[in-house]
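so i finally got all the pieces together for this one. its two components total, 479 residues if u count the protein bits. some of the lines might not be protein, just check the labels. i wanna see the whole assembly predicted at once instead of chain by chain like last time, that was a mess tbh
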Amino acid sequence: MFSNIDWDIILRSLPYLFFDGMRFTVILTILATAGGIVIGTILALLRLSNIPGLSHVAGFYVNLIRSMPLVLVIFWFFFLVPYIGQWITGSDRPIQVGAFYSALVTFTLFEAAYFCEIMRAGIQSISRGQQQAAQALGMSYPTTMGYIILPQAFRNMVPVLLTQTIILFQDTSLVYVISVTDFLGAASKIAQRDGRLVEMYLFAAVVYFVISLVASHGVRRLQHRIAIIR
Amino acid sequence: MSYHWNWGIFFQISPDGTYTFAQLLLFGAGWTLATALLAWAIALTVGTFIGVLRTSPLLWLVRLGNAYVELFRNIPLLVQMFLWYFVLPEVVPEAIGDWLKQLHNASFYNAVVCLGLYTSARVAEQVKAGILSLRGGQRMAGLAMGLTLPQTYRYVLLPMALRIILPPLTSEFLNIIKNSSVALTIGLIELTAAARSMSEFSFQVFEAFTGATLIYIVINIVVVNGMQWLERRVAVPGFISMGPPAAAH
């Protein structure tokens, strides 16, 4: 059973696991969350708008992404991003963007679909009267959204947005399928190099567990505090 | 664009010499559905059980249920897959470990158990929310009628709670289908893996992924419509205002 376990391997690989692996995971999580919320909010505004073409395109995009597994989306973008890069820069060959940017684009655009639905619920949770009142005061649509609706929608949805970020943090481990060295990728590389799968995967599980548990408890406390103030 | 589209690729024979690429994708879809359905059976059974524990009057049962949910929710699915597939056979007694390693279709069984338990934690969360959304009077009424606590759950609380949570359960079922793609990391050739291998053998990357995407969309539409039909089928007319129906026998 646990007789020939070498826990020392974890100690020896800590710098690699955290400075290479976890750094990638955290940076990817933060950037993809920030980008995802911005694009998701724009998508939500488009979906709720009365512009016929745009609201349908946004709705189609969100439903399409949400019906696909993340692994498949990662593969899609891994091969698609070079062509998108070629199209944008007008170069005559697909542009190699590297694993990090490929993963960043993938997670930003994938999570945008989920953040869109959260923000849509947030915007719809603000009573219609507020929008009408703002209009009656002569505010333009951007002013109404920027100063009246969105600040409240964000505030109401902060716990949900943060919970989705924790899910995103866990989901980033799936970059494993395109051989990127995130935290799990780093653990897996050492595991396979030294034949220490038990130690490394157990350690990875513990680290993810502790971070996610602490974060989700923090979100729950925040939720209570916001609920009281409101 | 320097990419050469070739939609005819689906009808070409794949390198295995017998089946076309389209057939390979459909086999993959079959594995996806088999994995998802079996795992869903586990998720519903275990999830309902844990959900019930978390609403029981016994504090230590509640704690046990909470710990179970936290454990399975806070570890990424991919890591859980690895734990079941790579770690479990090493930490159990050697005879069992060897048996696990030699199992035919080991990655399939691993994926089913892993996905089932992973999703059961999410189902438990929904079941708990469903039971708590019922008015407290229902539990008391059931007990006052002389039903035991298990009978109260079986005939009064669960029939209503499960109806209430059908919509979130639908999204969990859609999630389990999508999440089954993670099993490609332990070697299960489900739909995404089939598309990936098609793209590697044929070099028609985008056709392969488009094919898989379309199949996922079709599965999604079928599931959503099926669940809406089920919701209408099991709906209790006006039960929100009328309270629980007579126990179904």
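Confidence is low (pLDDT under 50) at residues 241-249 of chain B.
Chain B touches chain A through 42 residues (CB under 8 Å).
anyway lmk what u think
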